[in-house]
Amino acid sequence: MDGIKYAVFTEKSIRLLGNNQYTSNVESGSTRTEIKHWVELFFGVKVIAMNSHRLPRKGRRMGRYRRMIITLQPGYSIPPLIEKRT
């Protein structure tokens, strides 16, 4: 689970929970297959689709994260991950 950093709680991500889609930030070096394998192994769910995009850089900080939207098979769910405090 080193690649998955934290869950994202925004208006859009909360709205996507109704469609059985979960949003989290992951390390940019992690591949989709690695993330899919980690989610299926750790949470015991079946992933049917994954979408990702790179987050924009903010000032001098490097954009090291990608945001993944993970769609689960109907009937599966994962508990919320711990939210990152800023």
TrEMBL record:
GO terms for biological process: translation. The keyword RNA-binding applies. The keyword Transcription regulation does not apply. This is Large ribosomal subunit protein uL23c. Part of the 50S ribosomal subunit. One of its GO terms (cellular component) is ribosome. It comes from Eriocaulon decemflorum. Its main location: plastid. The gene is rpl23. GO terms for molecular function: rRNA binding; structural constituent of ribosome. Keywords: Chloroplast, Plastid, Ribonucleoprotein, Ribosomal protein, RNA-binding, rRNA-binding. It is found in: Plastid, Chloroplast. Binds to 23S rRNA. Belongs to the universal ribosomal protein uL23 family. HAMAP family: Ribosomal_uL23_B (MF_01369_B).
